[in-house]
């Protein structure tokens, strides 16, 4: 049942991304171009997502546990550090350059455009590099 709900959620998300135009890098880049050919329509997409997420969280937090899991997985960190700021900046720069964020690029794979596959390959490479580079800055445990 958990997989069916995951599949259904993915289909709803992907359909929404496609219908809203967020799979089109030109539309996304025009949203960021406030001094030029600004297209504010994606603000309505994000606003609608915020409304739905707010309602969903309010309903979820009324439950003692998630439907398909032992407990709610809630982040505990609240620090704003250089990793958070730097990562956010890199994400924003990448989104501004490519016109894709990973969430929109996954359904955009269905368009068959090679640029989408290249973008996602770069995202996966970034995830891998983070796992390789991050331990290098960590102090070693005493053996």
UniProtKB/TrEMBL annotation:
The chain crosses the membrane at residues 42-61, 89-110, 116-133. This is YeeE/YedE family protein. The lineage of its organism: Bacteria, Pseudomonadati, Pseudomonadota, Alphaproteobacteria, Hyphomicrobiales. Keywords: Membrane, Transmembrane, Transmembrane helix. The keyword Transmembrane applies. Pfam families: DUF6691 (PF20398).
